[in-house]
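Q: Here's a chain of 115 amino acids. Please give me its 3D structure as tokens.
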Amino acid sequence: MTLLQAQMPPTPPMPPQGPSSEMIVSGTLHDMAVVVLLLGAGLMFAALIWPLIKAIARRIEGGAASAEVQAELEGLRERVRQLEEMQPRMLELEERVDFTERIVAKSREPDRLPR
């Protein structure tokens, strides 16, 4: 008996049973839902962040600002220039007001002093 047993080849293992057709269909639908949700979330994120990306790109390129912004900037520069030109005149007017206040104060002092 030992000879007979030694000559018989071992039985091959049984192949693993694959998933049933129901599991394949439900797994595929689940995987598709995950992919669709991920794509949707990615598209929504890109749509929300797109204006920020464009603004950063414009700034990197040198920021070709719109004509309206350029016009407003020029207007503000002109206004600052005018105010700077008026500064010496304002200083002169302040000196005049100080002088006038001193003169007025001197003329009133004798009235205030007791005799």
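Q: Can you summarize the key feature?
A: Residues 66-110 form one domain.
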